[in-house]
Structures are given as structure tokens and as C-alpha cells.
Amino acid sequence: MDDLIAIWPFLLILPIVAFLYASVGHGGASGYLALMAIFSFSPEVMKPTALLLNLFVAAIAFFHYYRAGYFNRKLFLSFAIASIPLAFLGGMVEVDASIYKKILGILLIFAILKMLNVFGKEAPIVKDVKVWQGLLVGGIIGFFSGLIGIGGGIILSPVILLLHWGKMKEAAAVSALFIWVNSAAGLAGQLSNGVELSSLSFVLVGIAVVGGFFGSYVGSKKLNNRHLRHLLAVVLIVASFKLFVT
User: Fold this and answer.
1) What pLDDT score was predicted for residue 227?
2) In the chain, what are the domain boundaries?
């Protein structure tokens, strides 16, 4: 209880982060990691906790986007075939805390650009993903997902839009399930390597699920949350800066 009281600002911001990420089909791990970095959580706690939160929030996001008819199974499999085993492998790798922070700081840039809607434009014509493209992109993202403790959707979604592989809602639906499978594989890799989940992690799950449920519901319909996204982008910028200077 004392631990929860000590981080009460974190607990207030957490469901907002989950809401915003789920509204675009993401589990929110990069946002959770950013918050934990600001509140000086250790990497040993950050990685498994973020992946655990991802499992619940991404599952809810996928449910809503799937029901809305936006899921493209072929597009998902193009990336997931390589990402799942490599996410497990990445989860087994132990990385130095200082290197971990720098890699996370770089990956947060993708989240910042996403929240600022830099990758929000759709192409009029959708192209098919070649086999080698799906394996390469999925494998690289999967490995770093397990290594850092993210689901990889914050990277995959912009890639899909930039390379014209899918529409925005379609990218959100595919990313949601992509995040779930990578988070499960990455967490399994970490647990097999002796990493343990703290009791606080399960309390955070309950809080994040509330924000994730409402975020994914309204995101799969229609939502204008530009100002809130900009606010979250500021939080991510602060976290990224802290990761680089500490």
C-alpha cells in the first residue's frame, strides 16, 4: 500500500496512457516504459511489467477492432511468423541498464511521432507485402520487442502506413494482435531466463485495463483526441530525454 501511495501520480496517468494507446490499436508498452522511466523504475521491473500490461490492453484493443471488421489476417501473418520466435529470443537476452535506456529512448521517438500523428496519412492504393519484407520487418521488430519490453506495434503501424501496406484502422487492428503475440513471446523469454513479476505489476494491470477498454472502444469508432495525444507526446519527450541523460 505504501508503494502505491508513493507513486500516486503514476497511477493517475497510467489509465490515460492506456486509453490513448488503445485508441489507435496499441498496447501502450512504450508509454508505460516512459512513465516508469520518469518515476525511476529499474529496467528489471520495467520490461516484464510493460509486457504484462500489453497483454491485457492489446487484447482488448484487438477485440474492438476485430469486431469492427478491420483485421487483415494475411497482413498480420506476414509479420508475426518471424516476430514471435525472435521476440522470445530477445526476451532471453540480458542487456546492460545504460544500453537499455538508450535503446528505449530511441524507440520512444517512434511513439512521439505516432502521437503527433506524423504517420497518420493513408495511401489511396494498398500494396501487398512481399514474403521477405514481412519476415525482415517482423523479425527485427520482434527481437527488439522482447529485448526492450514493448510489443512493437508503435513501430509496425507507422511502417505499414509509410510503405502503403494497409489503411489506418487496418494497421491498428493488425498491430494490436502483433503486440499481443510479441508481448507473450517476449515475456515467456524473460520468465524462462529467471525474471520475476512483482506484485505491483498485477495492480497496474487492473488500472490500465480500464483505460484500455474505453480507449479501444471509442478508437474503433470515432475519436478526436488530438490535444490529449499532444500532452502524451510531451510526457514521452520528457522520458526520452531522461533516458539519454541518465
Assistant:
1) 63
2) 2-245
